[in-house]
Design goal:
The structure is a single chain. This protein is of the alpha/beta class and 524 residues long. The protein folds into 3 domains: 202 residues, FAD/NAD(P)-binding domain (3-Layer(bba) Sandwich), CATH 3.50.50.60; 139 residues, D-Amino Acid Oxidase, Chain A, domain 2; 140 residues, no CATH class. Strands 1, 2, 7, 8, 9, 10, 18 and 19 form an 8-stranded mixed beta sheet that branches. An 8-stranded mixed beta sheet has the order 16-12-15-14-13-4-5-20, with helices on one face.
Amino acid sequence: MSHSKLAVAILGGGMAGSLLARQLVRQLPGHRIGVFEKKREHSYTVGESMVEIASNYFVRRLGLSSYLYERHYPKNGLRFFFDSGDKTTPLQEMSEIGSASLPFHPAFQIDRSRLESDLNQMNVRDGVRVRMGVRVDRLELGRDGAPHRFRVLDGSKSEEFESRWVIDATGRNRMIARLENLQVPETQLENAATWGWFEGVTDIDSLGPESFRERVRHTPRRLSTLHFLYRGYWIWFIPLQGGTTSIGVVGEKSRLARKFGSGEELLAFLRQHAAVGSLLESAKPIATRNFAHLAYGTRRFFSPDRWGLVGESGAFPDPYYSPGADFIALANDLVGDLIARDLRGEEPAAVRDRTELYDQFMHFRVEAAMRLYRDLYPVIGSYELCKLRWDLDIGCYYNLWVSQFTRDEHLDARELKRQLVQRDYILAALSNFTALFQKLDAHLSAKGAYYRKNRGEYSDGQDCLGFARRVGCPRSPTDVIETTQEIFNAVRNRALDLLEDAPTPVEREAKPLVWFTSPRELDA
């Protein structure tokens, strides 16, 4: 039987697959690229909040800057609100972390249905073979240089395909992961989510007294991804063009044991929170979804046999910091580079070596993200604890990951090898800080002080970002290391203040970075 031949077959035409197709058709004109999507048309999809790495990828790699401003909302960062234990604090009295100006690194709130539909049209126009409403069947992965083969079913019709590369972008269906037994369950991070899309949500910028708006210099809070934080769970609000708002609740399974079977049930739960309820007085549900378990991993992202997993077909940690599009950008860039090297004729042994390097780096990045969330959900409901955690996380995000991506250092083999040498030390430092935050939680909770700063406090969230203007500019490894050391020491010293142990001047002396990266109690 004859097979239609492709250079690259992308299984799944959602955001990850469609973005990769656009990247490849821009980088590799003249090569046959196919996208195969089971849905006949795109609809509401979760994952609308974009942060800096993804935005850089969209703008710089894909040339979508004007498109994003014309068809989606610019984003005013992540914004956090803190409530009392009984959930009755009025919105304008809540403590808040969030910017008082639009960020200098652009980000966006994405209407996924619109984006995916628009990308399909762009890709078809540029020569990508896009097939909607089809099912991929009988996938046979080639070994040792052999091509991949699969069948595509469209109603009663079928067609056989052969491709040099095959990319799984099927999301949580995880076609290749299931076929190759790659799935790794996440048992430490027990998170779940229910969400929906609503119309008639009140504009947060219309509420509260003038002083509430003056506090952020009238910057639009509505354009932020709003987080309302509680011990063990949080609630998001994301505005979409056209008047729809994405709203969801995410947290530990033990605190979100029940699923909300309808939009009305979800609304009833949300309205139990006074400030959240003030935004929902006229809200009406459009659709509701849920995941009983969010986090999972994979044994491999990229294979020397010329296949790869992108988006949620590989791994997913947690949506708290909106990392989903970042991981799409990273995986797409890495596998796109492998495909380009192969199709341009690079030596097979060199491509194989780079494949293994990129696979190791993706595992490192996902594991680092997992450690931001494991055992830390209990601390997010306290302004003091969450602010400390935010300073650590956002500082490391800009310093270690955004800076690297904007300079294409994630495609530099020498840089990746240097980072992988440090992998265990970085992960150990994250674990040490997790233990410190847990100790702080226990200390404040025992004193009845967990919520003591949840009313009337405000921070623009940029305390640890004094170096941010250097992000995207040439930086030496020494600069990155010294900045990491400064972030770690600043967070530790403020943690010592919260523990109220009257640390001595010697205990407060700045510690070298290596001090944080071996197993220890950071308050010692």
